[in-house]
Amino acid sequence: MARWRYIGVLIAFILLLLFIILPPVGALTPLGMRTAGVLLFTIALWIFEPVPIGVTCFVTLALWVVVGALTFKDSFAYFGHYINLFLIGSFGIAGSLYSTGAARRYALSMLNLPFVRGRPWMFLIMWLFAASVLSSVTSNTATTVIFVALAIPVIEALGLKKGHTFAAMLLLLIGAAGSIGGNGTPIGTVVNVAGIGLVLNLFKYQMGFLQFSVAGYAVIFTCTILAYFVVRYILRPDVSPLAGVSTTYIQDELKKMGPMALGEKLAWMFLGIAIFFWIIPDPMNYVIPSLYKALNAGQTMNWAVTALLIAFVMCLIPVSWKERKMLLNMRDWWAQTDIGVLSLVAVAMALGDLLPKAELGISASIQGMLGPGLAVLGLIGWLLIIALAMGALTNFMSNTATAVLGISVFAPLSATLGIGNPIAIAFACLMAASMAMWFPPGTTCTAIVFSTGYLSVPYGFKKGGILFIPLTLGACFVGYFVAAAVFPWPI
Asked: By the 8 A CB rule, do 229 and 206 touch?
């Protein structure tokens, strides 16, 4: 373990002990002090990461039981929250796109479109857009692996050496796409699911799948357009080697894949069915409320119920009788499922219930410390702070942890101070917290692209920073204003 990580462990335990031993400060009650101490302990470990994030979250849930903030039953019941069950099911559904090859065919087909072939700048932007859209419905990591697997042969076919600006930019955009695309839908990234659950616990407000996706895709389109202008007119990589060679490689790869296989068709079909059932309850409630009540759609069409049932059916659908291969098997399903992620979501759910409790005084303390300063800024000032704070933190610690912290602070303050729409503020925190594209440890996406050797850390720091700033600001501002339109407040 690196020395600075040992320092992080020491800081975490000091904070925990101080908040247990010291008398209450400000609006905090004795129980609130102990609860806040566990939270600060957790935040310190999230930042320094001496152990995986998931391990810290397991300990956090246990410590909240020890200090009396939650009962054992309540604390660990968050693992069974419908948000986590939805995640488990959606991991399987989206994973089938990867295991069947459907995602790879999609990537090749997008890059083989007539208006992209032979146009280097269109190729670069379609590269970003195609990866972003795929990342919005499947694992960001899987998307990155697919596009890196496509990029390396293209770079080699062009005869480019490590350090060439086009090769570096191609990899940088893949890392960016994992961050941008995750914003598109609730299943795009765990960050979104954790945020939706936290908003539900804080405000009893259900963010609908369709509304979230409308705002999320507005962010994807905005970031793609911004990236085009930044890459072409500011970063200006040398794209001259691209003409012709990449087109040949992509068309050859499509030919090798042959006609679309049954498994690919079924993977897309079941994803479409799942999205339909995730979307339909909200419009049904508005258009045909009698049918909504008759079907008890709020329960029977819950996201988790739909995800688990569809994943189960996929496990029963054969794609090859000869090989005894099913559309989805448990190995592929659980390969996509991260228990550590589920524990992080559980902590977010618990935090959403703990913060508003008057007997703890945590929310009142946050308001007392930050309220006066933030109250004078106005909405634009808030969004600037959210973009910069979330964007900076997320490149050094877990995206989900960053989003949970941001929503926990800014959304309740927005509601209390009457500044902006608190649900849209939470959405803006999610968008900014997903923009980890600057440093290798930011996400698995950035770690993968930097590990190829074609994207150096100095290049990524300089060029990635120039790309990161406008994209984060664009995602935060566009995300807020579109979310404010689709998520009405007050309800």
From this structure: no
